[in-house]
Amino acid sequence: MGQEPEGKWHFFGRLEDAPSGGRLHGQVEGRYVTVLQHNGKLYCLDSVCFHAGGPLALGDIEALPGGQSCLKCPWHYYLVSLEGGEKWYQGTVAGPDGKLLPGLWKSVGQRQRTHNVEQRPDGIYVQLNLEGSLASDEYAHKHECGLRIQTGHLRLRRAPFPQHLHAANGAEGTRSPRVGSPRGERMGSPRSSPPASPRFSGEGEDCWPEDLPEPPLHGLRRGGMGSGGTQL
Ligand code: FES
Description:
single chain, 232 residues, mainly beta, five-stranded antiparallel sheet, 13 strands, globular, disordered C terminus, binds FE2/S2 (inorganic) cluster
């Protein structure tokens, strides 16, 4: 007991073959995982965000003051460290006038599962780390979440997921991202306009997650990390 299970190593691909952005998204034993290289090191973690199933693996990488490199989820901006899958947030401190000021960055512990990855002469191999249970397990096998990542499509659809690419390939959805928001910038990136796929078509309405009923998050302020409240 307590020993790491001897998981099988799976061939995952070659980074040279990764599309622009240098990230490889795929499935291992039915689980959606992503391999990326950052500062010369390979990382592998669950692709789908532990919080509400968002496309974490498509997020930008940010460095925290403590040196941790984190993926920033495009949906609610949670920061998840590449190294240990921890969720980080910035606490607050009371200023001299009683106003809350940004405080230290803190970790709530691991929420996103990370996996073993190694570069071999013929490509990248991944070994799942499935010990215990983690929050990201809830979404790790969800097809609609994984597809969103594999197609680079950040938005939700009110209609069943596979109907979305029709809009993504042509006119943008009926709800535009806010100008100047991180999502607005992202909409202009190549990742937001995946190539046409004959598999999906149909009607539906694009929306950002905030247009949907509130996800089960607490202590989070839109546009910034949570403070004070319970951190998931
Ligand atoms: Fe990723 Fe909410 S789904 S932060």
